[in-house]
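Reviewers of the previous submission asked for a worked example of the structure-prediction workflow described in the proposal, so we include one complete record here. The input consisted solely of the amino acid sequence. No template or homolog information was supplied to the procedure at any stage.
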Amino acid sequence: MAGAVRQHAAGWSLLEDDHGVLDDLLSSETEAVVSRFAGGGDGLVAARGYDAVKDGLRYIGVRAALDEAVVALKVPYDRTDAEHEDKLFALWDALRPGLDRPERISPKWGMLGFQGRDPATDFRGMGLLALEQLLFVAQSSGTGYLAVLACAEACDEEPFYPFATAGINFTAFALAALRRGDLDGALMAAAAAVGAHQWTLDAAMEVFHAFYARALLALHAQWRAEMPEDIMAFPGVSERVQAAMVARVRRGDLNELLSPGL
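From that input alone, the workflow returned the following structure tokens.
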């Protein structure tokens, strides 16, 4: 839906907004937007209803803002940025509570499933977005997440998969699913559940992160079910899990994805 209606025949796009339309949508000033689209109450508004048009436009605005926010989060990890560094060490604290923090460059980062001595190199593809999503899982509660975190604590032992590396891989997967429109059904269902006035960028981002987290939980469950002999099985297992997750959201199997906890 969003991809189809975000740009009209003349080529105008909410992502190339010179008239403040997106700002109005996200600040609840949708009456002004509806008037601009429908000529003060005639045409589309008369046919579809003022509230329906207003709610639809707000959904479109939030969906466009989500695309932009995800792109903004995908900035490269910056070793000189204190906020980036704080998030990295927060990940250590969440996954290794009670253990002293390692040096910034240290083989101990391998205990979280990073590939080298410097985690920044692992984030090159997905940037800060991958770290944000790892933190989302690491700081979440629920029995399912605790099972994943238990694996993270043992991921330096065979035959478990490396947690951080898997998480970064699944960020790329979640981002691709969002860009293809695979999550549009989930986003629209979530918007309908909370109501247009409560549908915000934060709420949309929560759905995106939840899809990522559920996929990571599915990876964990599949890995435990198969218990491969070595890490070389990881690409095949992750591809099967990712294909299954996409199939689920495309057919509208959203109850688990949209549930508040595990």
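The chain has two domains: 2-73, 82-258. We consider this example representative of the routine output the project will generate in years two and three.
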